[in-house]
Each structure stands twice: as structure tokens, then as C-alpha cells.
Design a protein that fits this description.
Metal-dep_hydrolase_composite; four-stranded mixed β-sheet; TIM Barrel; Metal_Hydrolase; Urease, subunit C, domain 1; 2 domains; Metallo-hydrolase_Enzymes; Amidohydrolase
Length: 443
């Protein structure tokens, strides 16, 4: 599909015009493309989007999905929500989406916004010495200087994510004796500065080990602040005790009603033991079900299939999610098996450019594309399903082709891409035209 991408300047100008007026006290809304309901709306400002391309169903040939049907609609946005989905109209005062495909705004579910070189001078990674503990020693040297400008660099990194269609991130934040609470405070300031166009969940992350550098004091302080998850990292390799580290995380999360998101890079027996012990602790404490995640969890890529199936089922039953950056090369995660058992899979860029890695693009749509390539998800149906990796499991169409997003009342967290359908967007990593966050036009 050939379309002309609306310019940033024109989109903002049109938005200003549209938002300047009040809409009538009655609006027509519809829960699907064919049924309208009249509802009351009193003295509310908002705006209209016309020529919005939405997916409406699949095209079939011999029971195989061979394409995706779309239609153009007009949307009304009020108070940060989708207030109406209307037949397309050429209203002069509506913002013209230029037939761009509208998708749920993307979400980066694993990133480190607090420590990055992005927005500054190029720096490649240094040669690693001494394994993970060697990297901890390097961080202890780098962090005092990084903290001086971490707020500004975080803002630049947020802008990169926005340009790639993400309006939300789960960010891990260093909490350890070198940074103390400064990294958290600096990132919170950056997020406050960007709050109109971006939101985040925060993970208190003891990058230097809970006990290896005695970060427990600072973790207890961070848990009292505005964070969402208690983090951890490689309990056996760094702290020397799986049970001690996991028990601390679990208790701290329970005491402060937080979730858990732990980095687990260990791929041997200690990695498997950590996974199984965390499953046990979550089952003992059901309040953590649906709120617990293992980031990376490389050990799953090393398991024989029978054991993998067993662990995948146990993760699903405990409602423990896996947050994977979709590694490739010598280590390919068993995403298809995890999906088979209903494990919640999320993704993120992790590092964009810092002392750990310089490969991040900022695009989670690219992660969905990489997943599709790695596992051979090449059909129209499979590609369309792969989009959920970028949107944190929200898809416009369900597996039977029924439209399930957007609905009236949904948050107006929207991304517009130059594509004819989700499958094309994933396959081509289609360019992002515009981003709307909580109804606010980002660009």
C-alpha cells in the first residue's frame, strides 16, 4: 500500500486546530464497525482523527489466512480515551491520519533508562575482564560520572523509544552502594519531564548483587519509593546463595506490595535451580502470581525438550512471565514452547548503547520481526500474531479474525505505521508516522 506520511509539523498544526474547539454534547460511539450507540458527553474537549486504517478481519483461501482486511474510520479522542469509532468522514477540522495503519502503542518491557551513553559521544564496549564481577567493578568506576548527566541522557533515550513507536517502558534502575538512590531519583526526574508522552514501570535493580556489595539497605529504601518491582540478578553467581537472594526479593516484594523482575543469566544447573525455587516461592505466595518475571532466563535455551516442557508448564501455572530480548546466534530462546504453555512473553531492548552493549535500536517492532525470522513465522497469520511481542500482547484481531481492538473506552495509546496490516508492519519493520500517548500527540 502506498501512502504519504503526514509530516510532524502538519500533524501538530492540525491537532492544535482540532483540540481548540468543543465537541457537541452528544456523540455517537460504536463498539464495532457496524453498530452505533448514542451516549452523553458534557463539556468535554477532544479531537477527531479521520482516515484511520483499522484491521477488520482476515481473508481466507481454502481455510488458510492469506491476507488481512482493513477499513478507514474516524475516531474521537476525549480525555485520553477512545470515545467513538465512527464511519470515516471528511470533516475539515479532523486530524488526517492519511490512511496510516493504527496499532496499539508499543511497549519496551526491559530497558535500562538510567545508565546510558545515548545522546552523548559514541563509545564502544570495553573488553570484558573477570566475568560479571569484573563488569560490576567497571560500573563502580563509571557510575559517578554517568550520574552527573543521567537525567538528560534518559530523556534522550526516551525520545528514541518514542520515535520507534513506544510510549511505555519497564526500566530497571540501579540500586547499589555506588549509586545509592541517585540513579532512581534522576530517572524519576526524567520521567516527570516526559510524562505527557511517556510512562514507565520501575524495577529496583541491585546490579551489583544483593549481598555481594550489601545493596539490601538501599533496596529496602527504594521499596518505599515510587517503584513497581523488586529486582535481582544471578543469585548463585553473584551472591553465592539462591535461597538467600530469592527469599529476600520475595519478602521485600510482599512487604511493599510490589512485583518481582529478576535478571537471570545463569544457564547451567544454578540457573535451573533458581527458576524452580522461584516457582516454588511464588506458588507459596499467590499474591505474586501474575506479578513475577524472569528477565533473560537463558537456562531455558539449554534444557532438553522434556524438561523444558515441564518447566514451561510450571511457569505458566505460577503465572511467571519471561522477558526476553530475543537473542540469536549460539543462544536461541524456546519461545514457541513457552507460548504453547501460555507463558506470558515480553520483550525489550535492554541496552541501547552503554558499557554492556551497543546493539540496541530502540524498536520493539524489530524484536517482533527477529522473533518471526528465528522461528519461521512467515505466513500472514503467524506474522500478525507476532505483533503481540511489540504491543505487550494486544492484537487488533483475535485468532479467528474477529476485531478485538480498539474498543470504545480503550486508552488512546496509539501508534500509526506506514503499513497495510500487522503482518506487513512486522515483516517490513514499517516506519512509524505518529505516536499518541494517553490522547496526547507526541509527534
Amino acid at each position: 500500500m502506498k501512502t504519504s506520511v503526514i509530516s510532524r509539523k502538519e500533524f501538530i498544526r492540525n491537532t492544535s486546530l482540532a483540540m481548540a474547539g468543543l465537541f457537541a454534547s452528544h456523540s455517537y460511539v460504536q463498539g464495532n464497525p457496524h453498530q452505533q450507540t448514542r451516549v452523553e458527553s458534557s463539556n468535554t474537549t477532544g479531537y477527531l482523527l479521520k482516515n484511520v486504517r483499522l484491521e477488520t478481519g482476515f481473508l481466507y483461501e481454502d481455510e488458510e489466512v492469506i491476507g488481512t482486511k482493513t477499513e478507514l474510520f474516524t475516531l474521537q479522542i476525549i480525555d485520553g480515551k477512545i470515545a467513538a469509532i465512527l464511519p470515516n468522514t471528511p470533516l475539515a477540522d479532523a486530524i488526517d491520519a492519511r490512511e496510516m495503519l493504527m496499532l496499539p502503542a508499543f511497549r519496551d518491557q526491559h530497558i535500562h533508562l538510567d545508565k546510558t551513553f545515548y545522546g552523548g559521544q559514541w563509545q564502544a564496549v570495553r573488553k570484558r575482564k573477570g566475568g560479571i564481577k569484573g563488569m560490576i567493578a567497571l560500573e563502580q568506576k563509571l557510575l559517578p560520572e554517568l550520574l552527573k548527566t543521567s537525567t538528560q541522557h534518559a530523556e534522550k533515550l526516551i525520545e528514541l523509544l518514542q520515535s520507534k513507536g513506544s510510549s511505555f517502558a519497564r526500566s530497571h534502575v540501579n540500586i547499589e552502594p555506588t549509586s545509592k538512590l541517585d540513579s532512581l531519583k534522576n530517572l524519576q526526574q526524567a520521567l516527570a519531564n516526559k510524562k505527557e508522552g511517556f510512562s514507565a514501570e520501575l524495577v529496583a535493580f541491585p546490579q551489583h548483587g544483593l549481598f555481594y556489595t550489601d545493596s539490601t539497605r538501599w533496596m529496602k529504601e527504594a521499596a518505599k519509593m515510587d517503584i513497581d518491582f523488586i529486582g535481582g540478578v544471578d543469585p548463585y553467581t553473584i551472591d553465592g546463595s539462591i535461597e538467600r537472594s530469592v527469599d529476600f526479593m520475595v519478602q521485600l516484594a510482599l512487604d511493599h506490595q510490589k512485583g518481582i523482575d529478576m535478571h537471570l543469566h545463569e544457564s547451567g544447573d544454578s540457573g535451573l535451580q533458581t527458576v524452580e525455587y522461584l516457582i516454588k516461592k511464588v506458588n507459596e505466595n499467590p499474591a505474586l502470581k501474575g506479578k513475577t518475571y524472569l528477565s533473560h532466563c537463558f537456562v531455558l535455551a539449554k534444557l532438553e525438550q522434556p524438561k523444558l516442557e515441564q518447566v514451561a508448564e510450571a511457569l505458566s501455572n505460577a503465572q511467571i512471565g519471561i522477558v526476553s530480548t530475543i537473542p540469536f546466534g549460539g543462544l536461541v530462546m524456546p519461545i514457541p514452547t513457552l507460548y504453547k504453555y501460555g507463558v506470558n512473553i515480553q520483550t525489550g531492548n535492554d541496552s541501547i548503547i552503554d558499557h554492556w552493549n551497543t546493539w540496541g535500536s530502540g524498536s520493539v517492532l524489530q524484536k517482533a520481526n527477529l522473533m518471526a525470522q528465528l522461528y519461521g513465522y512467515s505466513t500472514e497469520f503467524q506474522l500478525s500474531r507476532s505483533l503481540k511481542l511489540a504491543t505487550n500482547n494486544i492484537l487488533p484481531l483475535d485468532d479467528s479474525g474477529k476485531q478485538q481492538w480498539p474498543k470504545v473506552g480503550d486508552a488512546a495509546d496509539l501508534v500509526f505505521v506506514d503499513a497495510s496490516c500487522s503482518a506487513e508492519a512486522v515483516s517490513r519493520i514499517s516506519s512509524v508516522s505518529s505516536l499518541i500517548h494517553h490522547g496526547h500527540l507526541v509527534f
